[in-house]
Amino acid sequence: MKNPGLALVTNILINAGKLFYGIVDVIGIFLRHVKYISDLIYNTIIRVPLLVKNVNLTTHQMYIIGVESLPLVAVTSVFVGGEAVIQANFQFAGMVPLRYLGYAVSKSLVTELCPVLTAFVVSSRISTAIAAEIGSMKTSEQLDAMTCLSLDSFRYLIMPKFVACVLMLPVLVIFSELIAFIGSIITAMFFIDVSLYVYLTGLKLFFSLPDMIIGILKTTVFGAIIAITGAHFGFQSRKGAQGVGEATTRAVMFSAVLILFFDFMIAFFVLKAKF
Amino acid sequence: MEESFLKIEHLKKHFGSNQVLIDVNIDINKGEIVSIIGQSGHGKSVILKNIMGLMLPDGGRIIFEGEVISSPTKRSEEYEQVRKRFGMLFQGAALFDSMTVGENIAFPLRERTSMSEEEINKTIVDVLAMVGLHGIEEVMPAELSGGMRSRVGLARAIAMKPEVMLYDEPTSALDPIMSDKINDLITDLRNKLNMTSIIVTHDIASAYKVSDKIAMLHDGKIIFHGTPGEIRASRNPYIQQFIRGQRKMYYAVEDEKTYEEQVDLDKIRAQTPWAPKRSKFDG
User: Are residues B152 and B167 in the same domain?
Assistant: First the structure.
């Protein structure tokens, strides 16, 4: 081109156009995923009443998601409880009397640590499993076969897992809190030198039941997130082993991010409103 | 003119920049067995998936008993009623691998029909016997061989008694004896239940044996639709190359007229110097 100024302007315009196109493309992909996920949630929830016709599917999933996750949750919780005590002791050192140890530990366990870490642990087990199962069913045309036989894949595949996740996560958190308390008591007694009496009086000092209930109930949301992200990335996976692998990675990644995001939102709106 | 049972009109489908089906037209009558042949990856299975409502076409429509069942604007939810009258056998059989063979067959029967448990159990034994399998109700699909799996898939599909059965490569995983059995079964189903069958295959021998009509798909179009006798007599070199399984097409032609010129022996000899010299017997 003869005019270098014009060439520069053209170049800038072309690159600006490319950038704009890229941004619009990303927004488009994001909106498409939002649409798919909303469809998925809607289609799953309207099928929940059909649960009564195939209770065995849901109970089977409840066993897999609830009972089989318990050992992992237990191990995690013991260490979380112990670690909370050690951390609190470290932070308190020389400033706060140790009779408040129980209070601080119980608050953090009940409101945040147990619900979120249980959700993470279950998510790493279950959302990957759901994504892999649905992804490989897609690869081997089993989803198409279900459609051909007029079998509703939402009803037989997704809804039981969704319900099982929503119901079992709170149960797992109750166990998790119990085990974490035991872990924290053991640590307090044997490693920090706080007597059981002092620890428990501290624990009871400002213990509030609503905190515990909010902590337990918010995991229903986490359960829904685990089931829906798993299902979504399973349905969206490309065919083949690599596609299924990517789907499981994305499922666990997005469920972790969404769990933290919703945890923040719940803390923001519920706990902030309380005080 | 009598309306055909199943009619595919100007079907179009693309994936990305790849135009798989450009203009597919097939008429299928009731009780007919039609084979769709063509090279792998040329979109034969895509036709079946469009008929089955698993994909929406980009253009054209599919008419079943005078009613449009598939077109670009048709939603797959509206398809539910028609789908009950169709059955499909998938390439890899697509058995539900979390269930036993018996449960695989029983699951759709239990959920979609009002059969009692006894009737269901009887149906399972019956359909398995029909495909030549006995006593494998409690076996998991993963323990079966490829051929057995595809037979179980067929049993699962025919248990629902569809009017139209779509087969995606039914004999590709089978040994010759077993594929002959499946071929007999396909003709049997037609004779007993007047079942219409559409078979996607590249197994020419089976296609000759079972089909009333053979349609050939090439470059996204149906380039031939006729009886097995007609396809054998076809002078289109591509069809001849395909049905004879030749690796090379020696005389590619644009249309039927140039065909005559190009089969001129002298020309072929000139292109193939290794061929034997002209003998006194040649014209």
Answer: no
Q: What is the CATH number of the domain that holds B172?
A: 3.40.50.300
Give the tens place of pLDDT for each residue, A225-258. 999 999 999 999 998 899 999 999 999 999 999 9
Distance from CA of B83 to the nearest CA of A (A): 7
* Domain termination residue (choose one: B210, B228, B246): B228
Among residues A141, A113, A124, which one has the least CA distance to residue A72?
A124
| Closest in B80, B90, B107 to A144, CB measured | B90
Report in angstroms the alpha-carbon separations of A125 from A71, A157, A161, A197, B47: 12, 17, 13, 38, 39
**Residues in chain A whose Cβ is within 8 Å of chain B:** 140-142, 144-151, 156
Q: Do B95 and A144 touch (CB under 8 A)?
A: no
The tokens of A21 are what? 């196109």
Domain-embedded: residue B268: no
State the residue range of the domain holding B177: 1-85+162-228
Phi, psi of A167 (to 5 degrees): -80, -35
Cβ distance of A144 and B84 shorter than 8 Å: no
Cα gap A65→A125, rounded to integer Å: 8
ipTM for this prediction: 0.78
